[in-house]
Each structure stands twice: as structure tokens, then as C-alpha cells.
Amino acid sequence: MKHSSRPVFLNLLQIKMPVGALTSITHRVTGVLLAASVPVLVYLLELSLRSEQGFDDATGLFGHPAIKAVVFIELWALTHHMLAGIRHLLTDMSVGSTFVTARRSAWWVNVGGLAAALVAAGVWL
Could you tell me the pTM of the whole model? Predict the structure, then answer.
């Protein structure tokens, strides 16, 4: 069979990645989400500190269902990013670096991030 020099199309949706890889990729995505939200959060802080009317406007935004959904996503991003960061720091220090432990900790990060976000959203929203 002749080997083609043409590039091979990789369908990323068909590649089954291990849970550790998904956790690592999600850690990067949540970092981007958190960094992208900083200007919006700074604007809302500035608006809330501008005047009493500005504070009422800023707090009024949080009553909208779409904003509540965005806040939940941000809560999830924050909790996941924090837990995954701690996991990465520990594995860099060779704590939990065995295959079984690393896989288990990746699952705990994924489930724990979502659970913490749900608890925070239940208390806040």
C-alpha cells in the first residue's frame, strides 16, 4: 500500500481522551473565561461604587435569568480552575502522580467543581 503525503483529517470529536486530559483542557478554558470576565467585573464594581443609583443598577442586573446563568458559569469556572490548579500543583510535586491516583483526582476535580458551583449557586442565586 502506498503511503500518501497528504495530511490526515483528525476528527477531534471522535478521539476519546482520558479524563486527565479533559480536566487539563478544561482548566485552560476556565482560565480564559475567568480572565475574560475581569473587565466586566471591574465595570460592575465601578458602577456599583459610583452612586446609589449605580449600585441599584448593578444589583438589578443580577436578577435577570441570563445573568444568573452567566454567574453560574463563572462560579463553575472559578471552582473548577481552583481545584484543577491545586491538582496540578500537587502532581508537580509528585503527590498523586500514579496513574490510578491521577485519574481519580481528575474525576474529583470535575465532579467537585460542579458540585461546589451548584452549592454556591443555591446559596447565592
Answer: 0.81
Q: Which domains does the chain have, with CATH numbers?
A: 20-124 (1.20.1300.10)
State residue 97's pLDDT score.
82
For every residue of 28-80, DSSP letters joined together read HHHHHHHHHHHHHHHHHHHHHHH-HHHHHHHHHHTTSHHHHHHHHHHHHHHHH
pLDDT in tens, 45-72: 999 999 999 999 999 998 899 998 999 9
Nearest to 20 by CA among 116, 91, 78, 79: 91
d(CA 46, CA 63): 19
